[in-house]
Amino acid sequence: MEAYADLIRAPRGRVTLRVAADHDAVRKHARDCDVFYVWKPPVDAYARAPRLAWLQAMGAGVDWALVPELPPGVTVTRAPGIFGAWMAEYVAAWCLHVTQRIAEYSRAQRERRWIEQTLPDRLRGKTVCVVGLGDIGRAVARALRGLGARIVGVSRSGRAVREAERVYPHRALTRAVAAADFVVLVLPLTPHTMRLVDARVLAAMKPTAWLVNIARGAVVDEAALLAALGERRIAGAVLDVFAREPLAPEHPFWTMDNVVVTPHISGPSTAEEITPVFNANLARWLAGRPLRHVVDRRRGY
Ligand code: GLV
């Protein structure tokens, strides 16, 4: 947290910083705070923060912030425009991991086997369905399009975007995924998107298709996903997020040969990248100007 605090441009005399490295420290300082610049503070801190007027999230998703405990008058802002570049590389890397059969060649190398009959596949010409077309989803789409993939998108509105050949609304999700070789989830978790990818959607995917989840675990029905993967009704899944994190050591995802597990790192939050977003908003706040990147609490993002 010190790294974040060090980069805050707080005019002396107008802003006092309180740095909280753990939950107890958040609770302790909450009483004095007008502003929270935070990632997942304890929800009981809100009741202890009578002056709180603005919460700036140190990340893209704000599902954790929009809890009933947060008084309705608190403005919530998020940090868009940062994670797309990271997450586009993550998705490109893992899609190429699949098409280049990296796991297979690595295994063969360890076993000193020359598997010249096994050839890589190509991403060029594959269909990628990007579910969620915010700034991150569009960055992912651009990167994969740059590698020659055909992009279809899914968004709440279904409105056309430059990055996708075709965009479907949420209610047409099963149709959107049907032709995809990769389905990439990059949408916010809201009451509406909770378990949006359910058994029906998974059943609509091709048996050769991969699911890549860089959104939130709970946008997928994990039990249905586990069953689909176990019965090889889809080819595999690259999962960076889970309904419960950290993923429990006994969870079957860890050991399945068609599952890649990464520990919620596809869009790392660094003080250097996030704090300028906060600083810009803080300057607006101090000048009495409207904040940017305000979350629509009713919509959930
Ligand atoms: C991380 O998961 C984020 O939403 O920024």
Shape: elongated
The CATH architecture of the largest domain would be: 3-Layer(aba) Sandwich
* The CATH top-level class label of the largest domain: Alpha Beta
| Count of individual domains | 2
Protein architecture, described:
The chain has 301 residues and is α/β, with parallel strands linked by helices. It folds into 2 domains: 2-80 and 269-286, Rossmann fold (3-Layer(aba) Sandwich); 83-261, NAD(P)-binding Rossmann-like Domain (Rossmann fold, 3-Layer(aba) Sandwich), CATH 3.40.50.720. It is 29% helix and 14% strand. It is built from 9 helices and 10 strands. The protein has a 7-stranded parallel beta sheet with strand order 6-5-4-7-8-9-10. α7 links the parallel β7 and β8. α3 crosses α5 (135-146). The mean pLDDT is 97. The protein binds glyoxylic acid (GLV). Glyoxylic acid binds next to loops. Glyoxylic acid binds at residues 59-61, 267, 269.
